[in-house]
Amino acid sequence: xxxxxxxxxxPISVPEVAVIVLNWNGRDDTLACLESLRAVDYxxxxxxxxxxxxxxxxxxxxxxxxxxxxxxxxxxxxxxAEGNNVGIRLALQExxxxxxxxxxxxxxxxxxxxxxxxxxxxxxxxxxxxxxxLYHAEPERxxxxxxxWLDARMEFRHIQDDAENSIDARGVASTDYACGCALFxxxxxxxxxxxxxxxFFLTYEETDFCYRARRxxxxxxxxxxxxxxxxxxxxxxxxxxxxxxxxITRNRLLWGERHLSARELLRLYKVTWWEIRKRLKPExxxxxxxxxxxxxxxxxxxxxxxxxxxxxxQAVAWGALHYLLRRFGDAPSRVRNxxxxxxxx
Length: 345
Prior knowledge:
- The N and C termini lie far apart (49 Å).
- The chain folds into two domains: 220 residues, Spore Coat Polysaccharide Biosynthesis Protein SpsA, Chain A (Alpha-Beta Complex), CATH 3.90.550; 103 residues, no CATH class.
- 41% of the residues lie in helices and 19% in strands.
- Strands 1, 2, 3, 4, 5, 6, 7, 10, 11 and 12 form a ten-stranded mixed β-sheet that branches.
- The chain has eleven helices and twelve strands.
């Protein structure tokens, strides 16, 4: 911890960190996150909660239990990107040196901010940093120690073992992007490359941001000593939620359009098409196809209809279609209803 001056003031040389916690009907998780932030041992930080139109009593609970936390109400669900942008704009206007986007479904180690600020000081060329993110339910198991793009599979993969990382003498390793649940960036990076793009709404907005920074010559780093615990996919309703499938399908295509080469983008289109085809089309035996009976055709139609009724399959198909139709932002009500239907089952 950095000591205060004799007058009890924060030394001018200590950078200020604005911690932004986005809340949308996550009352209990947000309260636990804020409680963990109280124990942070870094001396110069402030917490800003942006509430995206919650209806679960979150706002009243935060005001009552954390009166020292600044609370901004947007009045409606702006999504992860624009909801965080509300906080980022305030942080930039008020002169914060660093902005830390922190998921509400996380619990942080007391040393987290100190380790991130220290790593940024050791890596002046770096602009975006992320932490060692562990599973909340399995506190010793790594969920993300940085991220790698797998060109062969046209997807990103979270590194889950530090043995795969090339940690340098500064205690950091290169990462393709900083996970949005713990994205720590210099304010100058947001001023230089812009904020999160609301088109993504949810997922891939931080990926797009980090790749825009990379294009400007600003790398992203994983900081091994900075630790937090994440309740993975709570806001989505689970990692297999149709909502996740929809946003990942659509937004991966939008991200690829912006940051992949023409050849790589064509491969991504093909991978997406084959995934949809595999999900929806019944398999036909090659030797039987020419002699299919009416009964067999009816059976295949029934299988295809059943596959289409699967909420995950529909979500993937809608995600690809909406990318082609240039329909971005929030998911339409029909997709959100798919997620509700699966939860009900």
